[in-house]
């Protein structure tokens, strides 16, 4: 049986500076050596993702683009589990030389933390 389609659509992206600023101003944080994840309840119906991958921290475009691809793919695979929050992912220096498996494990840990932190009260 084929896996269900989980596209990463344009509506699931943070695009404007004001959207990023809102998350930076009022957010919950989860950090490790590779990433700092900031989340804020969006009031919408879907989770949205914003990326902040600094050249100064990560290095050249090849490294930055690899990390962005891994983040987007991990988000796409976990989006059905995530609450309706705005998420900003900041890459930290540990991500620069980390292999793909380490990055994926780090992101999975962060997604679990986001689910716990932002779950609706029961």
Automatic annotation (TrEMBL):
Family membership noted in the UniProt record: Belongs to the RnpA family.
Reactions it catalyzes: Endonucleolytic cleavage of RNA, removing 5'-extranucleotides from tRNA precursor
One GO MF term: ribonuclease P activity
Keywords assigned: Endonuclease, Hydrolase, Nuclease, RNA-binding, tRNA processing
Keyword S-adenosyl-L-methionine belongs to the record: no
Species whose genome carries this gene: Steroidobacter gossypii
Highest taxon listed in the record's lineage: Bacteria
Keyword flag Phosphoprotein: no
Name used for this protein in its record: Ribonuclease P protein component
EC number: 3.1.26.5
NCBIfam families assigned to the protein according to its UniProt record, in alphabetical order: rnpA (TIGR00188)
PANTHER family per the UniProt record, alphabetical: RIBONUCLEASE P PROTEIN COMPONENT
Function, as annotated: RNaseP catalyzes the removal of the 5'-leader sequence from pre-tRNA to produce the mature 5'-terminus. It can also cleave other RNA substrates such as 4.5S RNA. The protein component plays an auxiliary but essential role in vivo by binding to the 5'-leader sequence and broadening the substrate specificity of the ribozyme.
Alphabetical list of Pfam families matching this protein: Ribonuclease_P (PF00825)
Subunit composition and interactions: Consists of a catalytic RNA component (M1 or rnpB) and a protein subunit.
